[in-house]
Amino acid sequence: MQTQKIPLSPPTLEEIALVLQSPLAANHKHATVEVVPCPDLREAPFHLATQGLSGDEKISDVGGQPNLFPKPRLECKWSMIDIARAMEMDPHGGGLLGAGAGPYHVVGRNCELVPNISWNNGFDNVTNGTRYAQIKEGKPSVGQCPSVDCALMINLYGSRGDPGPVIKVTAKGRVGEERSITECIQKALAHAYGDRTVSVGGVFVVKKGKAYYHIMPDFPPEDELPWNNAKQVNDWLTFHEFEAPIVCLSVLHSADPEKKLGLRMEHTHCTSMEGKDVGGHYHGDIDGKIEYEGYFNVAQTLYRIEQPKTIIERDSRD
């Protein structure tokens, strides 16, 4: 896999917590940001495939939106285990979580992926807690993914999954204009660190309230492509309001190194862990009556994998 490795020099968790406290408090009636020992995230309500978020912390951005727009490039599909190898992750144990496009070639249609895997004593011994959200017979449908494959684009946080210190974020009752808690975090990091890249990943639960999500439907027929503008893509997406509880996995960055990697600055996908057909790409709350609890860690290394060519380069080649 075509891979660029970017060593990072992240701030301490304590410094990041201080950076986030004021923006989150300004946007919510109640907000706390503190460094705590990570709880066992395998337990409810999170149900992650790893216990914690610590040990050889890494983030990857694989593929990207140019693989979807102006037309889906269906040859772009990968195994998350191959991505783990490209991230130089320890084969003896670790895990990945994040947000991406699902394996349409396995599920049978395009879908939103909620990656959640771990491995132990080799990459062949995988625990797969990955779920997907799709539009099936005109309605949202959430299922357990039978594969560790993905397609088009995916953003992943990886670690050995060890217990260790993490940033705990709680927020309740939005009063500011920023409806998305992850975009609030991303903007706070961007404001504090400017061109310095700080890359963060983790999990949060929408404990109470209603939030807004989109789910990609199946790919449009060839005669409706290519898309010519963002409005056409937006009109193709399906949008939904879902009630809590819902678990969200997130990867975000303060800045794109030298503005040349084409990073997706924030990407969050969500799923019900209670068997309900709710999930998809998180956009933010509906009316401010919302409550969150989340745990995050900072990456030591960033990997840009299979970076797409520009749209102009693709058009000239097709």
UniProtKB/TrEMBL annotation:
Key words, A-Z: Hydrolase, Metal-binding, Nucleus, Zinc
Domain DUF1907, first and last residues per copy: 19-305
Major place of residence: nucleus
CDD domains in alphabetical order: DUF1907 (cd17298)
Coiled coil regions in record: none
Pfam families registered for this protein in UniProt: DUF1907
Subcellular location: Nucleus
GO cellular component: nucleus
Keyword Zinc: yes
Quaternary structure and partners: Monomer.
Protein name, as recorded: DUF1907-domain-containing protein
Origin species: Bimuria novae-zelandiae CBS 107.79
